[in-house]
Amino acid sequence: MRVVILEDNAILAEGLSLLLGTAGFEVVAVATETEAFAKAVDEHHPDVTVVDVRLPPTFTDEGLRAAIEARRLHPGLPVLVFSQYVEEVYAAELLASGTEGVGYLLKDRVSRVDEFLDAVRRVAAGGTVLDPEVVSQLMVRRSSPLERLTPREREVLALMAEGLGNTEIAERLVVTEGAVHKHVGNVFLKLDLPMSTGHRRVLAVLAHLGL
């Protein structure tokens, strides 16, 4: 079973490689940044990937976004996120891409080697493995209608809150005005703003501001 690892901590990456290799997996690539990870997935078509969340250059959510993009390009690609952090927005988007072959474990909460190896096998087989803490944090975020929005829709809404029109938002995000129009429509829909009101843009901004 072929594995691609995305982990910038050299010691942890080496440890994961040795652990998986000893357990019978074939680690075909270890990437320390997202571009190398994308190339490795394209080249090796792994049976499963093990991905950290916070990577260079910003150490925020690069790994998780890389996993989402990899699953977009390779539908059904099994991804096990193995991190110290829960990044709720992109975790929700990862799960929204399909729960088959998806896992999210917190490093500090995995106490046994066999537990981790079992999770890798289950995700590779198309199963779902989620740490209870991940589920808890995602459920808290779902309590707000804003959490229905994708990261791009949240970007559009934030720019709306700055007073930008669709043309200005398109220029800022380097996308077409048509794409912005679609995102704005999705924002209105997901925030349950009625079609009958002429003030949906104002109401959406108020929701963004928590008012």
Would you write up a description of this structure?
By secondary structure, the chain is α/β, with parallel strands linked by helices. It has helices at 10-22, 34-44, 62-73, 88-96, 113-124, 132-141, 151-161, 166-173, 177-190, 200-208, and strands spanning 2-6, 26-31, 48-51, 79-83, 102-106, 128-130. It has a six-stranded parallel β-sheet with strand order 2-1-3-4-5-6, sandwiched between helices. The chain is elongated, with a radius of gyration of 19 Å.
Could you name the key traits of this structure?
single chain; 211 residues; alpha/beta; 6-stranded parallel β-sheet; 10 helices; 6 strands; elongated
Globally, the shape reads elongated
What's the helix count?
A: 10
Gyration radius, rounded: 19 Å
End-to-end distance, in Å? 51 Å
N-to-C order of helices and strands? EHEHEHEHEHEHHHHH
Spans of 5+ residues with little confidence (pLDDT < 50)? none
Strand content: 5-15%
Largest beta sheet: strand ordering? 2-1-3-4-5-6
Structural class: alpha/beta
What profile does the largest beta sheet have? 6 strands, parallel
